[in-house]
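R.M. (postdoc): so does anyone remember the format we settled on? I'll just put the structure tokens first.
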């Protein structure tokens, strides 16, 4: 069965591309200006910090980390560690990011902002128990943080805590009931719990929001098979194949013909 994972949505509109270009131009100017300023004042930790922030926003994560390290060598500062951790996170150095975020927690700095990032880093690194622990701490600060419930639910699913994953996915739905992904995930978790009829209702809600999701049609098909509803199962399996799951053609021919 298919559990769907999301971290967010990307929409490629011309207006957003224009805003991104303007932002890049702005950050390039900041980088140039602080580079000039550093020629006159090479030991100014604030100049390295601000140039690093601009490099991070521009997408030069390696350059940003180098500037933050120089800034810290001149003057240890928790704010710099926070920005360096974010740069490492965006660069994909999740272990390095965790170490820096944990330094902030030890010093009681930025706690409301770092637990989610620590949790998400652990999730990428497949450290599911640590991810769950830190998403729980993040939720303590922001009880309406829908993606924390979603990701904690995904982590619980990975450790076979299906009842816990259902509860977290339903918490997400309490905040945002327009996500076909989460309805699908609730259905998969309920399937694992043997709650097949309830799972079908959630798959149907998912398909109402997105009728082109072949994974959900497949999940629904398998659930019908579990209930010995073979005709309905074959109808949904055929829809899944038609929408893009060509790999199930052999399965369909064996079971449904």
């Amino acid at each position: 069965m298919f559990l769907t994972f999301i971290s967010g949505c990307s929409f490629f509109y011309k207006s957003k591309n224009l805003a991104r270009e303007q932002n890049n131009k702005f950050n390039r100017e900041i980088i140039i200006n602080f580079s000039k300023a550093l020629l006159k004042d090479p030991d100014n930790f604030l100049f390295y910090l601000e140039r690093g922030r601009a490099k991070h926003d521009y997408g030069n994560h390696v350059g940003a980390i180098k500037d933050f390290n120089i800034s810290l060598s001149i003057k240890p500062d928790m704010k710099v560690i926070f920005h360096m951790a974010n740069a490492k996170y965006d660069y994909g150095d999740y272990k390095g990011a965790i170490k820096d975020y944990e330094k902030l927690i030890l010093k009681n700095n930025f706690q409301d902002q770092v637990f989610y990032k620590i949790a998400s880093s652990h999730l990428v690194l497949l450290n599911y128990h640590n991810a769950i622990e830190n998403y729980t701490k993040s939720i303590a600060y922001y009880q309406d943080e829908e993606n924390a419930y979603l990701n904690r639910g995904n982590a619980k699913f990975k450790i076979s805590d299906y009842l816990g994953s259902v509860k977290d996915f339903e918490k997400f739905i309490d905040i945002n009931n327009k996500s076909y992904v989460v309805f699908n995930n609730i259905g998969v978790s309920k399937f694992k719990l043997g709650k097949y009829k309830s799972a079908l209702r959630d798959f149907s809600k998912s398909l109402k929001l997105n009728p082109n999701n072949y994974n959900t049609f497949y999940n629904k098909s398998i659930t019908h098979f579990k209930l010995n509803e073979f005709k309905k199962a074959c109808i949904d399996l055929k829809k899944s194949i038609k929408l893009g799951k060509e790999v199930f053609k052999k399965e369909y021919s064996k079971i449904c013909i």
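R.M.: ...and that's the designed sequence above, right after the tokens. Also worth knowing: The CA atoms of residues 162 and 192 lie 7 Å apart. The radius of gyration is 23 Å.
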